[in-house]
Design a protein that fits this description.
Length: about 120
Amino acid sequence: MRRVPLWWWWIAVVWLVSAPWLGFTSTPQWSRVHWIPFTDPEDKPRDFIFNVVLFVPFGISFARGRRGTRRLVESGTAAALVSLSAEATQLFAKLRNPSATDVTTAIAGSVLGAAFMAWVERD
């Protein structure tokens, strides 16, 4: 049996943390979307830090075994896709705000993790 990479499991963690467990609605809340990063009045520095820290392990795991600067681009792209999918679920929540800030900080965390792996593996 093939072992599942940690980053696959980390996607589940991100979705669990981001899911709209309360205030669910069947109507998308497009008016709650904050399209420009760092402009949502509800964003707090702890939210930025949490999102970055949440995605560092994803970036480390995703980048493991990949080579060159490509690992940074691939890790950032993968984090963007995971974060966008998690934010999309929040469209159906009255108590959550889908935000480009979350996507941006997810990319930053993942790239930091991938950069750490590049440093550890020295390539």
